[in-house]
Amino acid sequence: MLQAHGTTSALCSGRQARPALPARRPRAGSVQVHATVAADKVDGRAVRRSLNKTGRYVRKPNKDPKSNELMEEHGVGYSSTGLVAQMREQDNLWQQGDVTVKLAKAYGYCWGVERAVRMAYEARNAFPEKRVHITNEIIHNPEVNQRLRELDINIFEDSAKGKDYASIKEGDVVIFPAFGATVQEMELFRDKNVEMVDTTCPWVAKVWNSVDIYGRKQFTSIIHGKYSHEETVATASFADKYIIIRDLEESNYVCEYILKGGDKEEFLTKFKKAVSKGFDPEKDLQRVGLANQTTMLKGETQEMGKMFERTMLSKYGPAALGEHFMLMDTICDATQERQDALYEITDDPSIDMMIVIGGFNSSNTSHLQEIAEHKGITSFWVDSAARIDVAGNKLLHKTGWGELKETTNWLCDGPLTIGITSGASTPDRAIEEVLDKVFRIKDPSFAGVAPKECAVVGVPEEEEEE
Ligand code: SF4
Hints:
The protein is 36% helix and 16% strand. By secondary structure, it is α/β, with parallel strands linked by helices.
């Protein structure tokens, strides 16, 4: 549980590009698929295909207008009439009295997150009489999850003992969240005869396809990610042999081991929670393919790929590289785009302070706050407008190093230019509510921004998955 530490007084000191849908072809130089599966491997691809045959499995939005309306009303989709929608139409800028607001070029909901929330609303609408469950938080945003609970959707929380799905009965509806579900969960729900709504982002499914291909080629999957993150847990369940590597330091350690060998016991202790059962670094690092958790830094994943490529090149020579290293392009740009946009906005000398909005458990939002702090800009990270006290001109915010702080007089008198951004699980409404409070602090007579019909955010068409 997070605690507030200390109180300080502040020293008054186009809409993002949506990612194109996943391309299906491996990157030039990577190897083609051969459909052979080790006998003892759970065939994740076959399990996913078997879901399709049940007649109880949905994996795309149905664009039902009633759900769209409810999402608008609840403020859990893209803004189409509010302040953010209006800012989109004027170069991400807003002037309210003596406050100038500059919204980062890439911010807020990524395509996959909005799609998942939409599918959850559609599931509720399609099955009004049925009990509906989600195997995890749909996304890392407390307000969106709360809205779903209010729609009588049961969210299974993780616990030390894991999850107990015994309460889910035949005929119920089970939603898989944006970051997916494990192969074992898919099998369980297929066999429980429930209705399945799979909101897994196609970019995540693309990573699953990669590790499946690596397994069929008897390659070990190197997964760049955090071993406890739900998405990585799901990805690992599709892999045959795998090792999960968190950062470049760990990557370097593994590459050194491949080249020079080392202490096997130390290796297995270091990665004890991050390797497949029976993993043997002597045997299982001879043929490796790289995959990633989609919220990791794109540049870091690319660097990791280069590290392993160089390592295999050095160990086996150029002629045999294809037998020892595979790389498929599975990087989603959404996280990187938000960070690049933050670097850009914090380079703007007119910005007096930043506000970063996103769930306190959202790792991509924490990176945004860290960047602002590293650039030396006063930056306040809040998860919702509820953290801001208008009458007291104070707020409870989180720092990049995880401390909760209360700051008073955070908005000073006189002209102020604020930069604003939000994490990939944050709906536009959260930005609008925070700015509403900012404007009320600066001008007690502020009566809100009038809604206005704006262009709807375009999303890419769904593609058929192989
Ligand atoms: S960040 Fe994750 S959920 Fe969003 S588009 Fe990328 S893969 Fe999909």
